[in-house]
Design goal:
Blueprint lengths: L1 H18 L5 H8 L2 H12 L6 H19 L8 H25 L4 H30 L4 H29 L1 H6 L4 H13 L5 H17 L1 H25 L1
């Protein structure tokens, strides 16, 4: 439990939060989009997960879609420091997936996330007091700002980890991490409706490739669901005929 909290949220948020100060948002999106690739390799090496051709092609296609969207949205700028911080974030994300997967087979999702949050707070507290403590306690805080932080904690952190950990339990590490590439899609769509940002042809192409990659990576599971649906429908039909 202490180890998964060390990987995420501790290492991941330190890496991503600091890394984005030194790279452009477009470059950051491209680098973070490589997480499914490293996660799939790690799952294959350490957890012996079976990685089908569909999963591999889906990951590649999904990452390509994120790259196309990112290239079309701004300049590609990065420093060595920024890349190292983002590499730390990738290491944290992959390490979390590899270490939490065995725990999902033994403990409930809420138990895992509860300990993860507790130990994560313990890891962050000394850094917070050392770096931002004096500033935090000296300024006047607004209710709106504090409510925003609480909302981010409940939904973007705890809620996200509860859902994500449960998906790892059901699908495994490799397939689960492909869904992280949906983040830029939601960002672009929400920015379109809330902020009025324009969506160009390149963005649409990137969105399409990312979604196609996601569907392709889940092809085997979608096929099983379809077979179960058809089987259930067939049984229902036979039961209705016999009753008649």
């Amino acid at each position: 439990m202490m180890l998964i909290a060390f990987f995420e949220p501790f290492l991941y948020f330190i890496g991503e939060g600091n890394g984005m100060h030194y790279v452009s948002s477009s470059m950051g999106s491209i680098i973070i989009a490589t997480i499914p690739i490293f996660a799939a390799v790690g799952a294959w090496l350490f957890l012996k997960e079976r990685i089908s051709v569909f999963v591999i092609l889906g990951i590649i296609l999904s990452c390509l879609g994120v790259v196309i969207m990112s290239v079309g949205s701004g300049e590609l700028r990065a420093t060595f420091t920024g890349i190292m911080f983002l590499a730390l974030a990738i290491f944290g994300a992959v390490g979390y997936g590899l270490t939490v997967r065995p725990l999902t087979l033994r403990y409930s999702t809420l138990t895992i996330v509860a300990y993860q949050t507790l130990f994560g707070a313990v890891y962050f507290l000394p850094l917070f007091l050392l770096i931002d403590g004096s500033h935090f306690f000296s300024v006047t805080h607004s209710a709106r700002g504090l409510i925003t932080i609480v909302a981010m904690s409940l939904f973007a952190t705890i809620g996200a980890f509860v859902l994500y950990t449960d998906v790892i339990r059901s699908l495994g590490v490799a397939k689960s991490n492909v869904f992280t590439n949906l983040i830029p899609i939601f960002t672009i769509v929400l920015a379109y409706f809330i902020l009025g940002d324009a969506i160009g042809l390149r963005t649409i192409l990137g969105l399409t490739l990312t979604l196609m990659g996601l569907i392709l990576s889940q092809y085997a599971d979608l096929k099983k669901l379809k077979q179960r649906y058809l089987l259930g429908k067939s049984i229902t039909s036979e039961g209705g005929t016999n009753a008649s």
